[in-house]
Amino acid sequence: MTSGSSDCLFCRLAAGDGELSLVHQDERTVTLMDIQPVTEGHMLVIPRAHAARLADLDPEDGAQLFRNGQAAAAALRHSGLRWEGVNFFLADGEAAGQDVWHVHLHVFPRFSGDGFQLQLPPDYRVRPRAELDSMAAQLRSAWPVG
User: Fold this and answer.
1) 116: closest CA among 42, 52, 17, 62?
2) Ordered domains of the chain (ranges, CATH)
3) Which H helix or E strand runs over 130?
4) C-alpha 59: how far from its chain's center?
5) How many whole angstroms separate alpha carbon 55 and alpha carbon 92?
6) What is the pLDDT of residues 87-118, one digit of tens each?
7) What is the largest CA-CA distance in the chain?
8) Helices within the chain (DSSP H only)
9) In 3D, which of 6, 56, 53, 51 has the Cα closest to residue 29?
């Protein structure tokens, strides 16, 4: 079911071409250990079919990606690895931090003092309802049909 090219690292890994530390695989996804983990236990869930961006991802592959993200989080909780929480991270586009052009979901355990943090922008605040309503209207008008 893998489609992609030999230029894509994740397509090659999903096809079994290359070294990886496999956690789980099914018809649509492969879950493996991240080679450069944020914390011990950091996994990647990747769709077998190539999709560079979320908009390119088959909705069924996306659903399976998140089902296996949930399973990966449950595995972390029962694994004996250190965890106090779990983060999911998916970057879509360069500005979001995407550096491999194949959709992938990071699943990593979190614990106090692990060194990972989110940096919020300087204008982070509760927004007025009118501003939120205006943004909601823009998004509603752009919502994909189907």
Assistant:
1) 42
2) 9-117 (3.30.428.10)
3) helix 129-142
4) 14
5) 9
6) 999 999 999 999 999 999 999 999 999 999 98
7) 52
8) 9-14, 59-78, 129-142
9) 51
| The pair of three-digit structure tokens given for residue 59, joined into one six-digit string | 């909705």
Give the pLDDT of residue 125: 96
* CA distances in angstroms from 72 to 16, 17, 54, 100, listed in the order given: 20, 23, 20, 21
User: Tokens 């939120």 correspond to what residue?
Assistant: 132
Report in angstroms the alpha-carbon separations of 98 from 14, 71, 76, 143: 19, 23, 24, 23
Place of tokens 């990747």: 46
- Beta strands 22-25 and 105-110 are unpaired
Q: Looking at residue 2, what is its pLDDT?
A: 46
8 A C-beta contact, residue 57 and residue 103: yes
Contact indicator for 51, 57 with CB cutoff of 8 Å: yes
**How many angstroms separate the CA atoms of 81 and 79, rounded?**
5
Active-site amino acid positions: 104
Q: How far apart are CA 99 and CA 133, in angstroms?
A: 33
